[in-house]
């Protein structure tokens, strides 16, 4: 679905989205009971939401510290070139960068980085700094993560 296209959803579609954002592993039967439809009608609606690009996938949410990444940081990069291939190449070989966004303003990119330690963060940011000026903000805590979306 193109970025500027908006799909019209009814209340049942919205209820399906809310339920699946709360529990993406919910069975079709449980989802059907939640939204007061038959299982086949619910499955059809979910398939339509997938086909329309509203539902883009299902994922497991994992705790980074449990996997050995207790440090989260946001790294802003002022990238002096319009050739983004070196950045894309770096992102391809740096799995600790879990998000990267091209943004407006003084910085060109904002990246979310996970690290094993402060020295590991220094190593990762040192690699990013080879591309331009960086500013790093280490996360103390995250009072809001993964907010569910409702239609605009």
TrEMBL record:
<dbReference type="InterPro" id="IPR000485">
    <property type="entry name" value="AsnC-type_HTH_dom"/>
</dbReference>
<keyword id="KW-0804">Transcription</keyword>
<dbReference type="Pfam" id="PF13412">
    <property type="entry name" value="HTH_24"/>
</dbReference>
<dbReference type="InterPro" id="IPR019888">
    <property type="entry name" value="Tscrpt_reg_AsnC-like"/>
</dbReference>
<dbReference type="InterPro" id="IPR011991">
    <property type="entry name" value="ArsR-like_HTH"/>
</dbReference>
<dbReference type="GO" id="GO:0043200">
    <property type="term" value="P:response to amino acid"/>
</dbReference>
<dbReference type="InterPro" id="IPR011008">
    <property type="entry name" value="Dimeric_a/b-barrel"/>
</dbReference>
<keyword id="KW-0805">Transcription regulation</keyword>
<feature type="domain" description="HTH asnC-type">
    <location>
        <begin position="9"/>
        <end position="70"/>
    </location>
</feature>
<dbReference type="GO" id="GO:0043565">
    <property type="term" value="F:sequence-specific DNA binding"/>
</dbReference>
<dbReference type="GO" id="GO:0005829">
    <property type="term" value="C:cytosol"/>
</dbReference>
<dbReference type="InterPro" id="IPR036390">
    <property type="entry name" value="WH_DNA-bd_sf"/>
</dbReference>
<protein>
    <submittedName>
        <fullName>HTH-type transcriptional regulator LrpC</fullName>
    </submittedName>
</protein>
<dbReference type="Pfam" id="PF01037">
    <property type="entry name" value="AsnC_trans_reg"/>
</dbReference>
<keyword id="KW-0238">DNA-binding</keyword>
<dbReference type="InterPro" id="IPR036388">
    <property type="entry name" value="WH-like_DNA-bd_sf"/>
</dbReference>
<dbReference type="InterPro" id="IPR019887">
    <property type="entry name" value="Tscrpt_reg_AsnC/Lrp_C"/>
</dbReference>
């Amino acid at each position: 679905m193109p970025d500027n296209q908006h799909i019209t959803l009814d209340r049942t579609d919205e209820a399906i989205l809310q339920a699946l954002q709360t529990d993406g592993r919910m069975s079709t039967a449980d989802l059907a009971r939640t939204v007061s439809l038959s299982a086949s009608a619910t499955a059809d609606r979910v398939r339509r939401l997938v086909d329309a690009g509203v539902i883009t996938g299902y994922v497991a949410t994992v705790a980074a510290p449990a996997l050995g990444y207790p440090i989260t940081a946001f790294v802003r990069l002022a990238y002096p070139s319009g050739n983004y291939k070196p950045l894309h190449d770096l992102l391809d070989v740096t799995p600790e960068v879990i998000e990267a966004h091209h943004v407006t303003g003084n910085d060109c990119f904002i990246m979310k980085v996970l690290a094993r330690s402060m020295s590991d963060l220094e190593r990762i940011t040192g690699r990013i700094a080879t591309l331009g000026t960086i500013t790093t903000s280490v996360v103390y805590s995250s009072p809001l993560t993964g907010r569910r979306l409702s239609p605009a």
